[in-house]
Structure formats: C-alpha cells, structure tokens
C-alpha cells in the first residue's frame, strides 16, 4: 500500500498540513474537535506513523503501560490495584522497564490513551484489566499492534487469536466458598457482587448460581457499586427478603464491612443467624469483631505474573495463556460458630 | 565547553565506543560494572546527551514521573500513596500528561531512575516524596535539570534556591493533636513515629516535644517501622514504662490498630486509661471499636496540588512554594469518654 502522507490527510480532512501535524503528534495548537476529525480521517485512510521517525532515539520505549478506568467511589479496588501495581513494578524494575500508569473515568478515555501511547510510541505493551463482554479495547490494541496481556478470564465474546491471558480461577474459588457455607449447615445463600459489566463478576455470578443449585441451596444475587453503604443496605434488603439463617458472600471487604455493621446493628447473631464471607482478604478482615472469613489471593503476585507474561510476549511472541494460582479460603469467626 | 563525544568517554574509560553507546543509551549489551564505570567517567568529563538527538521525535516528554522508594513492609504508606497517585492522575489526565511510576527499594535506585529518565528524556519533571535531611536526590535532580516539586517541608539542609515545595502543616497538626489530648486531662503523652530519617517525621517529633513541654505534659517518642506488630509491642512498652493514664499518638492507622488491639488485650479501659489518636484517617478508623480519633487529611488533594504545582513550574518556571491545607482532627471515642 502506498504510504499515506500528512498532505493526503490534510486534503481529505479539508484542513492545513500543519493542523494535521499537530493532531498526529498529539500536541496543542489544534482544537479538540478538529483533532478528532483529523484522527478519524487519518484512520480511514489507513495512516500509520512512520516507523523511522517514531523509532528515534530508540525503537523500544522500554515501558509498560496500565490504564485503570475506575468509577470514582470503588474504594476497595484501590487496595487491590495498589498491591497489583507494586507486583508489576517489582518485575519491571528488575528488567529495567519503566511503568506508565493512567487512571481515567471511562474505557473511552482508556482507548484514547492507547491511541496516544501508540502515536508517541510511549509503551511497548499494556496490561488490560477489568475485561468485559465484547470489550472494545481488545480491538483497539490489536489495531495499534500493541502487545497486551488480559488479567483475568477473557469472555467468549473476545475472539482474537492473538489474546494472551493470565486466567484467574474465579469459578473454582466461588465453588470453594459455597462448599464451605454448605458445610456450615446454611440452606440459603446470597452474593453481593460488584459491577455486572465486568466479566469476572459475571463469571462469579454464574459459578455462584450453578454451585448453589448443585449444593441444593436457595440463592440470590444483587449488584453493588462496591461501597460500604451498598454493603449495609443490600444486606438488610436480603435479610428482609430471605430471612435467616443466611450465608452472604461479599465481592470485597468494604462491602463485607458494611454488611457486618448492618447485621450487628440489627442485633442478629454472627455466625448463627448470618454468616459472612469476604471475597478479598486484608488486615481489616482480622481486626473487626467477629473476624471475617475471606477469600485470600496474592494480588502482588498477580501483578508480578501479569508483567512477566507481557515481558515474555515481547521477547518471544508468547501466546500461551497462564493460570493464576487458586486463592485460599481463610476461615474465621464470621462463618463458623465458636 | 567543547562537546564531549562517545569517543572521548571510551578513551578515558578504556573501553570500546560501542560499550559507551550501550551504557549511555541505557541498553543491554554491557555489564553492570562496566556500565557504572562508563557513567562515572562520562559524568566526570561533563558529558550531556545531545539535545538534538534526544529531542526527536519531540522535545517534550509530556510525562511526569514519581519514584517511591519504600521499605517492603510499610503497609499504610500504600493507602496514602495510592490516594496520592489518584490525585496526581486527575490533574495529569486533565492536562494530557502521562504519568511514569516507579516503586523501588532504595533512594539509590531512585537516583538511578532519575538518571535513566534524564538520559531517555522520559519525563519533563518529577514529584519528590519522603524528603530527608541532606537529601542527595535534590542534587541529582538539579544536576540533570529535571524540574521537581518537593511534597512536604524541605529540611534546612536543602539549600537550593531552585527548590519548590508543597508544604504540609505537620507542626500545626501536631499542636492540634496535643492540645486535644491536654484538654482530655491526660498528663502523659507518647508518640510512635515512623522512620526518623524522613524529614516529616523529624518535624513531627520536634513539634511533639515542643508542644508537650508548652502544655506541661510528660512526653516520650519511639520510632517504628509502621507495622501493626510494632504498634502493638511499642504500645505495651510505653505503658509498662510510663503507666496510665496515657495519651498515645500513632503515626498511621496501622500502628494505631496494633496499639488498640494490644491495649484491649491487656484489659485496659479506652479512653479512661489509654487514649489513642491516629495520624491518618481511613474507613478503618470508623469500623473498629472504639472508633479512633484521627488526623484527617485529603491525600488525593495533596496529589492534585503537587501535580498542579509541577505543571505550573513547566509553564512559567514557578518558584513560589505553596502551603497545603491544615488537616482536620476527627474526634472519636478512642480519646474522649462516653
């Protein structure tokens, strides 16, 4: 294919070549609207930055990128992500790679970031987190030929042959939790999940319903926004609907703490009337009373393995996905009687 | 001054020009020892990367850097830093800047990172955290002419005219804490500090001792490594030495939680016999029983202001340091009787 030049784009977009240059180089000097228009036209024409120009001073950025698109109030995600980031860093530092981090509000901004990183050759590849059904980010990364590793289980809807996953055993862990609750003698279970648009949430909900059925447990699930308030309120809703004894699985420790306070304020007995299990362990689960039974996984190691997988892909075009270790269920007083 | 070439460095270091090239470009192909030797010689000769070569494809990296040199086990720092990072990101994203994050074990590695960022022109400037007495990082940043903002109060030993600080009111906050404790009627106070090599720790210790004296309180301080275990053990040591009633100020909420458990395990009454104040608030302080009185500051906003100050320096060579807002003292049951 003939190489597309700035002049071609300028002509097609009906703007000056210098406006195109500003836009393509991601520099100020052109309005947001004009820039978007230019980028669209450039895309349509199949424009790619000149490898030679972009390859100075070096073809390799020696940098790995991570964009977290997080809703403002998902507090817990913070502790998970910081431990994850520390793990990523351990591996990158040891391999002399830099780490580019971006925290944005939406996956639209996340995709815009990938474009800008690709234009500037800022990163050699990225870690993709919070994968969802029909995730448009995968298409964007493949279009820009940015190597990536999906942290978690890519849903069926992601059909690329090029995808590389660090798979997490969400279904197995949920089975472990429900078998534990069944062993405590409870007949009804509920799951306060996170955002249902996340694939791992869907996979957990599916496993929850399937395992509950297999174990002969009555089951209900409710979506939350990960806040303590939602944990408290939805726990009370569940108890009002289902009655006790009831076993509740919370998608993170912040939800579990909200639920714990609400249950205590109602004067209900833990674990006799309500059993609580937190999906995500932290020192917080040990300092509350009663202590919280929790699914404990090493998010630092998850970060390490994700970074290592991406570096292997850089070196050898690795395509074999990896399974992350099963988490441990740490049984404490919130689910078993004293 | 005559421009120093790779050949000059190769001659002086007694190595091949290609080895010098590998070393200066921070690429593999030369041993760590050889690389260090070469960098030393290059420094001595006053070598600087060619502006022209480094300025392609663009003179501006459009990136801000942050290196955190953290001891492996300082758990709390994590929550502080993640909220800080989220604040930094909010400002950078709005200004289309990238964010380069590095987490390393020592300030030696931190300085090595600055050199590598400077060589690669990876960042336009950095945020400098955990400033300490005679901090060698300031000298390194000035040598590389990397703009920086010090987050916190630079100690007297940092003499540069070029420094720019986002000052934090540590002394004022400590005065607020001690006045609160004095009002509760306690006559003895103790402070479990963080690492004494940090300037903010020294400033807090100094303010603690000065205010205790002015308020006529008997005072003692002990250094810790920020762990829950240290919080528990040193709290028991203090009680054994000083007796009760005693007011204890903990440098973060993890220390405070350790102290709280230890005091409860001893069967001592809170707040009648032991009053606890945490320097750093979090939802954890609200979920324990009794709830913890805490110094509450907005670490997200601290990150925002630090990033904004650095961006102002880029634009206008800003040199006026800024004072960060006073934190709030949130009084809860751990320091005032019910």
UniProtKB/TrEMBL annotation, chains A, B:
Q: What is the official name of this protein in its record?
A: HTH lacI-type domain-containing protein
Pfam family of the protein (one): Peripla_BP_3
Q: Which UniProt keywords apply?
A: DNA-binding, Transcription, Transcription regulation
Name the SUPFAM superfamilies for this protein. lambda repressor-like DNA-binding domains, Periplasmic binding protein-like I
- State whether keyword Ubl conjugation applies: no
Gene Ontology molecular function terms on file: DNA-binding transcription factor activity; transcription cis-regulatory region binding
Record domain HTH lacI-type: where: 4-58
Say yes or no: keyword Transcription present.
yes
**Origin: domain of life:** Bacteria
């Amino acid at each position: 294919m003939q190489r597309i030049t700035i002049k071609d784009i300028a002509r097609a977009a009906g703007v000056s070549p210098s406006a195109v240059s500003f836009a393509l180089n991601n520099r100020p000097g052109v309005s947001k609207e004009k820039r978007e228009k230019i980028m669209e036209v450039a895309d349509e024409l199949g424009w790619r930055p000149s490898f030679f120009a972009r390859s100075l001073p070096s073809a390799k950025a020696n940098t790995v990128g991570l964009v977290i698109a997080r809703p403002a109030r998902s507090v817990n995600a913070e502790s998970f992500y910081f431990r994850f980031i520390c793990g990523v860093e351990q591996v990158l530092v040891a391999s002399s790679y830099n780490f580019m981090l971006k925290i944005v509000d939406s996956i639209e901004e996340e995709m815009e970031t990938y474009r800008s990183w690709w234009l500037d050759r800022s990163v050699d590849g990225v870690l993709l987190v919070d994968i969802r059904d029909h995730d448009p980010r995968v298409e964007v990364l493949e279009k820009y030929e940015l190597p990536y590793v999906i942290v978690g289980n890519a849903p069926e809807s992601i059909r690329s042959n090029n995808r590389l996953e660090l798979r997490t055993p969400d279904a197995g862990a949920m089975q472990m939790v429900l078998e534990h609750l069944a062993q405590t003698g409870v007949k009804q279970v509920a799951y306060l999940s996170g955002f249902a648009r996340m694939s791992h949430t869907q996979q957990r909900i599916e496993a929850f319903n399937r395992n509950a059925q297999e174990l002969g447990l009555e089951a209900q699930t409710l979506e939350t926004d990960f806040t303590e308030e939602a944990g408290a309120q939805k726990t009370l809703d569940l108890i009002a609907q289902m009655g006790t004894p009831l076993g509740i699985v919370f998608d993170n420790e912040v939800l579990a703490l909200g639920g714990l306070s609400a249950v205590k304020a109602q004067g209900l007995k833990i674990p006799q009337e309500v059993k609580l299990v937190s999906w995500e362990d932290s020192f917080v689960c040990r300092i509350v009373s009663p202590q919280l039974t929790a699914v404990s996984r090493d998010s630092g190691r998850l970060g390490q393995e994700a970074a290592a997988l991406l570096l292997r892909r850089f070196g050898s075009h690795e395509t074999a996905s990896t399974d992350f270790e099963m988490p441990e269920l740490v049984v404490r007083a919130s689910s078993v009687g004293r």
